[in-house]
Amino acid sequence: MAVRGRPVRGGPVRLVVRTFSELCLTVGTLIVLFVAYVMFWTGVKAAEASDGQIDRLQDTWARSPLAAPAPGPEAETAPRAPGAYEPGRPFAVMYVPRLGRDWDWPVLEGTGTKTLQKGLGHYAGTARLGETGNFSVAGHRRTYGDPFKDFPRLRPGDAVVLTDGATWFTYRIVNKPYRTVPGDIGVIDDVPRKAGFDGPGRYLTLTTCEPEWGSSHRLIVWAHLDATQPVADGRPRALSG
Description:
By secondary structure, this protein is of the alpha+beta class. The chain has helices at about 10-65, 115, and strands at about 90-95, 105-110, 120, 135-140, 160-165, 165-175, 180, 200-210, 215-230. It contains 2 helices and 9 strands, in the order αββαβββββββ. The chain has an 8-stranded mixed beta barrel with strand order 1-2-3-4-8-9-6-5. The longest helix has about 55 residues, at about 10-65. It is globular, with a radius of gyration of 25 Å.
C-alpha cells in the first residue's frame, strides 16, 4: 500500500509570496531597463540624430552658400531661401563655451517632441537668427543628449555663438538663469522686459526645464547680439579660447 505523503504546510501562502517576489523582481528589472533607456539610449540616439543634422547642414552650406552680411551687430541676415525656416529642419549650429569645449548642437525649426529629440528647437514665430526681435530657442535639460544639463552654470557675460554657415553671431548673456512657470510666454516677447531690455534690439532667449528631472518650471537666460563676422574670416574670438 502506498504511503501517503505529509501535506505541505503553508502551500498557498508560499505560492503567494513566491508570486509576489517574482512580480517585484520583474517590475524592478523593467524599471532598471527604463532608466537605462532614458539615461543612456536616448542620449545615444540624440547624438546620432544631432550629428546627422549637423552633417545635413554642412552639406547644404557647401552646395548652396549663403552670402554673409556686412560685419557688425546691426547687420541683417540674408535669407537662404524665401519664407520662414522649414519646420523640423536644421538651419544653424549653436556653441556655448561655458557648457564645454565640445558642446555644439543643431538648431531646428519648431519645439515639437520629435524636433527636440534631434537638437535644439527655435520657437516658431520668434525672430530669425541675427535679426531684430527675440531669437528664442528651447532644449532638453535631461534625456536626448542632455543638451542643457548644465544650464544653471550660465552667467552674465557668457557667449552664445551661432552660425548659419556664412556668418558667426555672438550673443552675450545678461542674467543668471531665471526661474518661471511654463505659461510665462512673455519671456520670448520681441522685447523681453524681464531681461531688463527696454526697446527693440537683436535678442536671444534660451529656455529649458526645471527641476533637472522635471518640467514644472522653466529656466531662462537672455542675451543680446554682441558681434557678427563672416565664417570666411575664421572662428570668432569667443570660440578660440
